[in-house]
Amino acid sequence: MKKIMTVFGTRPEAIKMAPLVKELQSNGQFDVKVCVTAQHRQMLDMVLQLFDIKPDYDLDIMQHGQTITDITNRVLKGMESVLQQERPDMLLVHGDTTTTFASALAAFYAKVPVGHVEAGLRSNNKYSPYPEEMNRRITSSIAELHFAPTVGNVENLLAENVAKSSISVTGNTVIDALLSVVKEDYRFGNELDEIDYNNKKVVLLTCHRRENWGEPMKSIFRAVKRLVNENEEVEVVFPMHLNPTVRDIAREILGGDRRIHLIEPLDYEPFANIMGKSYIIMTDSGGIQEEAPALGKPVIVMRTETERPEAVQAGTVKVAGVEEESVYEAASELINSELEYLKMARAVNPYGDGTACQKINTELLKYFK
């Protein structure tokens, strides 16, 4: 059997790669090895436990105050050793993290072919998102196979002279993961169970991106505060990122309001289910732009551009920027206009139907045969 190694290091990567690992393990056609870098330690471990994945290798690189350069150096060195020991027939990487870029580079040095899951996303601004935009561009230049979620992603790759024969449209594996964990009768076992989801318009807020630190984040949070103050039916749930910068700004602007729940980060299962129970989602995340439409939830993106234009074109996502007034107006329109809300809630999700992992498995079999 051909040996396939997967590598990932952050929570979003783990969520999107977990169903693929399970698919490859279950079909018995590949010798599957799992390596984690633990670029995010605690949040990664939560996902591994949920999906019952036991890594063969754990580089455990996370250190307090780590920089992008630190992460790159430790992943590159760690993967050199792992690849020398295992000599896989292909290394599967995901998306655009520093783990992805450094692992792909290590595989190139070791002359191990790379398969890029979630390939072809582009914002066309190398500093936004930072460093993700350049991570995925460099990974594309190394990869042997490109598993693109959408036709638009394929067009991006073709524009960069990637061979058409190396690209396949699969949908996004995050839909596979999401649909496996969301349950209508889910119970959180904490204060989230006390929210009246039937009569309140619950806004799920996530905000953590490096480029939003400082004044942009303050503007976003002021807009959320206004939304709560002016709409009695609105409640906000904000699972705060562990970064102290994010937490300090959140507590300063959003703290002390009974209808704003500043809570600790959620494991993937409760997070997926709070998405399912929410009315709208306000985020600067990338992955949520793909997940929420599968649940019929409108998404307001608090960034100046998105590398997921398919969602904007489909009408499931609206890019609001980071200015207080524009963020407030975008959210307020969805809260107060049923027509605008339904337009977005009923739009068709462009990221697939939950069979991405099966499609990737099929493409791998074609490649090796």
UniProtKB/TrEMBL annotation:
What SUPFAM superfamilies does UniProt report for this protein, alphabetically?
UDP-Glycosyltransferase/glycogen phosphorylase
At the top level, the lineage of the source is Bacteria
Q: Does the keyword Ion transport apply?
A: no
Keyword Ubl conjugation in the entry? The reply is no
UniProt-recorded Gene Ontology molecular function terms: UDP-N-acetylglucosamine 2-epimerase activity
Q: Which InterPro entries does this one have? A: UDP_GlcNAc_Epimerase_2_dom, WecB-like
Q: Which keywords fit this entry according to its UniProt record?
A: Isomerase
Q: EC number(s) on record?
A: 5.1.3.14
- List the Gene3D superfamilies hit by this protein, alphabetically: Glycogen Phosphorylase B
Pfam hit, one: Epimerase_2
The UDP-N-acetylglucosamine 2-epimerase domain, residue ranges: 22-361
Entry's family note: Belongs to the UDP-N-acetylglucosamine 2-epimerase family.
User: What is the protein's given name?
Assistant: UDP-N-acetylglucosamine 2-epimerase (non-hydrolyzing)
Q: Which organism is it from?
A: Peptoclostridium litorale DSM 5388
